[in-house]
Amino acid sequence: MQNIFSGFQATPTHEAVEELLRSPHVRIERIVSNGQASPEGFWYYQDESEWVAVLEGRAAIGFENGEAVELSAGDAITIPAHTRHRVLWTHSEQRTVWLAVFYQS
Amino acid sequence: MQNIFSGFQATPTHEAVEELLRSPHVRIERIVSNGQASPEGFWYYQDESEWVAVLEGRAAIGFENGEAVELSAGDAITIPAHTRHRVLWTHSEQRTVWLAVFYQS
Hints:
The structure is a homodimer. By secondary structure, the first copy, chain A, is mainly β. In chain A, about 0% of the residues lie in helices and about 50% in strands. Chain A has strands spanning about 1-5, 15-20, 25-35, 50-55, 60-65, 70, 75-80, 85-90, 95-105. Chain A starts with a strand and ends with a strand.
């Protein structure tokens, strides 16, 4: 049994990324952030599509076209494959727990 | 944008099952229970594997071999394809929010 809300190794300087499931077509990750953001100029660019939810905390994801989406607890979006995106910010005073499902679309 | 923790249609007599994502290889569902359990003698039997988490509330899943797993908020298990299982109970006094990822294994 896994628990999404416990067993973190996140620190103020590092996000904790853990793989909860890996199968041929899908991968599930739990990510815990403590105020981190993507480095300036960095973009995620993935061959897989991603369904991502914020389960605790708050965060914002930015896209190459300038759009930004703010996510509070429970909010989920789908990011199509090959869509450049980055984490603009995560809550600075509480942990942000993400659940990300990467899949071949 | 979707929100996992809001917009429920669950009632004391019916579970609310909503599809959050459907793609060729993966399907994500949000299920909200209010004390429901699987009917006596009923077993889920699926061609897909399932990664399932309880995000709120509490529940128990039973398996054909007699094993039972109790899930509290954050707990997640993987149920391989073709594994008979059923919901033994869900919390009777608060909602139970499940997140289920079905995938071809």
